[in-house]
Amino acid sequence: MAADTFRISRRRALSLAGVSAAAGVGAGVAAGRSAPDASAVPADPAALKYPFYGEHQAGITTPAQDRLHFAVFDVDDIPREELISLLQDWTIAAARMSQGGSAGEFAPDAGPYEAPPEDTGEAMDLGPTGLTITFGFGPTLFTAADGTDRFGIADRRPRALVDLPRFSGDMLDERISGGDLCIQACADDPQVAVHAIRNLSRIAFGRASLRYSQLGFGRTSSTSTAQVTPRNLFGFKDGTANLKAEDPAAVDEHVWVADSDDQAWMAGGSYLVSRKIRMNIEPWDRTRLSEQERAIGRTKGHGAPLSGGDEFTAPDFSMPGSGGKPIIAEQAHVRLAHPDTNGGARMLRRGYNFVDGNDDLGRLNAGLFFLCFQRDPERSFIPVQTRLAGSDLLNEYTRHVGSAIFAVPGGAAEGSYVGARLFES
Amino acid sequence: MITARLPKPAVVAAACGILFVTACTPNASAETAAGGTGELSVTSTAEDCSVSAATAESGPLTFTIRNAGDQVTEFYLLAEDGLRIVSEVENIGPGISRNLVVNATPGSYYTVCKPGMVGDGVGRAAFTVTDSGTAVEPAGDEQAQIDAALTNYKAYVKDQVDQLLTGTEDFAAAYVAGNDDEARRLYPTTRMHFERVEPVAESFGDLDPKLDNREADLAEGEEWTGWHRIEKDLWPPADAGYVPLTQAEREAVAAQLVEDTTTLHSSIQGIELSLDQLANGAIGLMDEVANGKVTGEEEIWSGTDLWDFQGNVEGARVLADGLRNLLESRDPELAATLDADFTSLSAELDKHRTSAPDAAQRDIAYVSYGDLASEDVKALSDRVNALSEPLSRITAALLG
User: What's the burial of B253, exposed, middle or buried (CB within 10 Å: 0-12/13-18/19+)?
Assistant: First the structure.
């Protein structure tokens, strides 16, 4: 059954890819197997669209868009059937919107005149602008804090969907942590991403409600070799060593859950860890350049490792510098986060910068909304973050204030819905 | 107003001939080719050290050194005797460019690169600085001033840690004896000694977390020791089901605190400090204020953040004052700005001081952080930012 679904979905994805490619759009990404044709510049960037249905959900290996609206929901005390119907409704609306359509059956200016419009309308005329909508399930959807099996799926909770441990220095705010369901909406136009979350939230009323949501701008990772590495709010290039869609073997090994992994319903899916990392912007800005580069382990300009070369030169962690100390400091971020330091652990990072205005002290409330996808957090995020939390030189300038983990199921076949296999016997 | 406070380039670089010149690299990414006045490019390879020109006019010179070799390299500007280092830049990785800014007086020099960071270097070449007619400030007797600053600061650190140890012993004794009122009086006033020299204490990597970890700093399963563990026991949370420490637990955590403080005390006896550490210590202390004290996150149980705040500011002021003579000759404007900003921050803090100005150390008192209005905290934060910006420029002003 599952194999059939995937065969169909992959054919479907390929046919959609053909359509998209005609419009100059990088395609094949939804299937997660082939590289996006990034050399082709869309004639109209607003028309950029990615297939919604496929083996994998879009929005993971899709070339990272410029804007994010990430939303986390808590599910009301509803029967299992209503949870399923919510996922079905969300899937249909998300599929439509990702192709530039309305959230509902009718356009925002159509439908019964005495009824409120089904679609809120602010995305009219904007085009899909590369919108992807990605759904995930939090630990509390499977098992409530008191152990209750809320929807008869407790025995299907994947082993890899662990409760994240407490890391040194965590200053987590419960109000922006955890949650039952997540939706990651990414697009090149912020209003398109916001429109998606707004309409999906509206659809959920009575079944699930917003727990918290986060706007992001300025993607901080590139997920395709065709993308220039962007900068985070420390002013440094971020994500140079990220997993890229063009390396399907590495993506298969480190991102996608395999058929043989634990829970079969998660095959083709991934695990998402989100961390809201506040940056102590003002002290950082007062830090001398030499110290900034020492903390990161790369040059600020080109992003080359301090051991030399250019941005994509592999860091040489053993290279001695003056005074017999390594030229890349023992506690430099690049060293502690690097796969070589972490038994080869890798993940696909997909984070965004954020500025939530300012705090009461007149300081920018800004930082990195870190998102990463991986096959098993216990082999990727958790050991890496444990190492970083212990001694990263950057810790002086950051604090983790939000945290969550979600099981992101594989993509849906057309006619089905996201997460259907979780509920099938 | 930041630009108004930027030290003038000519003044900034004056120290390069004497001090730790690794910091003379204000712009690591600049790739400007030689050509403009005072701009020179250097290419360092395994065999050679080619400089774009063999002469330059006196005044500020910028060498842009590009490492075209495959080993880490260094670049030196040597004095006429070919031995004394006028200026240098270290740790240039292969393929990386870095700038060296130096304020050169007329005379004969040598340039040399040191790929691999060992040996006498390669490509040694004569370099002549002709008189541009514009006077370059002489360095004067700066080394004597630097030595005095280091000696004075080391004495200050020792004195503070002496008092910290004595105070900690008294605090621990009061706590173990169940004299909690006395312990609560000694807690913030003793910690001020630690806060005044915090960057030095933090330089002993293992000790700082044992002494000063907050509950939020702990990883899962990590043991909590030090000041803040006792703080929570002396100011227990009112609402939740906090379990007070038993007498045996009190004795253990107090003994550990005294033991770790004793270790800190003996560790600092032979401490060596550099001018670089002094200059950065001041801004480090103000970062401590910005990241923890002004937000009330340092002393969440006792609310005694303002004692720590005052300790950090006093420590920063001692550092800045110790460097004042040096700074005065380089950048009098910066020195004056710092004086004014320290004064206005202290005035803001004094508004919340409840003890007399001449109170003994153990009687110093402030209002609890929780009693500050949000506009009070904003005003303090604004003054911290106002002071920290010019303070962060001391290192560049002194070292290049």
Answer: buried
Q: Do A321 and B72 touch (CB under 8 A)?
A: yes
Q: Check CB contact of B215 with chain A, cutoff 8 Å.
A: no
CB A67 within 8 A of CB A189: yes
Q: What is the DSSP letter of B292?
A: I
Q: From B399, which residue of chain A is nearest by alpha-carbon distance?
A: A288
What ipTM goes with this model?
Answer: 0.77
Q: Determine the Cα–Cα distance for residues A374 and A382; give it in Å rounded to an integer.
A: 11
Asked if B22 lies within 8 A of A286 by C-beta distance, the reply is no
- Token pair recorded at residue B3: 């630009």
A305–B contact, CB cutoff 8 A: yes
Query: A72 and A210 in contact (C-beta within 8 Å)?
Result: yes
Pairing of strands A181-187, A398-408: unpaired
Q: Is B113 helix (H, G, I), strand (E, B) or coil?
A: strand
How many A-B residue pairs are in contact by the CB < 8 A criterion? 112
Query: What was the pLDDT predicted at B117?
Result: 85
- Cα dihedral A363, A364, A365, A367 in deg (nearest 10): -130
Q: Which residues contact A226 (CB under 8 A, 6 or more apart)?
A: A26, A36, A38, A39, A63
Higher pLDDT, A409 or B137: A409
Beta bridge partners of A408: A270
CA A361, CA B162: separation in Å to the nearest integer? 36
- Look at strands A398-408 and A270-279 and give their pairing: antiparallel
Spatial separation of the C-alpha atoms in residues A66 and A70, rounded to whole Å: 13
A10: left (phi over 0), alpha (psi -120 to 50) or beta: alpha
Strand-strand pairing, B55-57 and B122-130: parallel
Separation in Å, CA B131 to CA B37, B55, B59, B64, B102? 14, 11, 9, 22, 15
A313 shares contact with chain B (CB less than 8 Å): yes
Minimum Cα–Cα distance from A315: chain B residue? B93
Would you call A167 an interface residue with chain B, using a CB distance cutoff of 8 Å?
A: yes
β-pair partners for B75: B89, B113
Place of tokens 């950082």: A284
pLDDT for the residue A5:
33
Contact assignment for B93 to A308 by CB distance below 8 Å? yes
Residues A352 and A68: beta-carbon distance below 8 Å:
yes
A299-355 pLDDT per residue, tens = 999 999 999 999 999 999 999 998 889 999 999 999 999 999 998 989 999 999 999
| Closest CA in chain B for residue A317 | B93
- Point out the least confidently predicted range of A369-373, B346-350, B391-395: B391-395
Chain A: residue whose CA lies nearest to B387:
A286
Chain B closest-CA separation from residue A391 CA (Å): 10
Chain A partners of B392 at a C-beta cutoff of 8 Å?
286-288
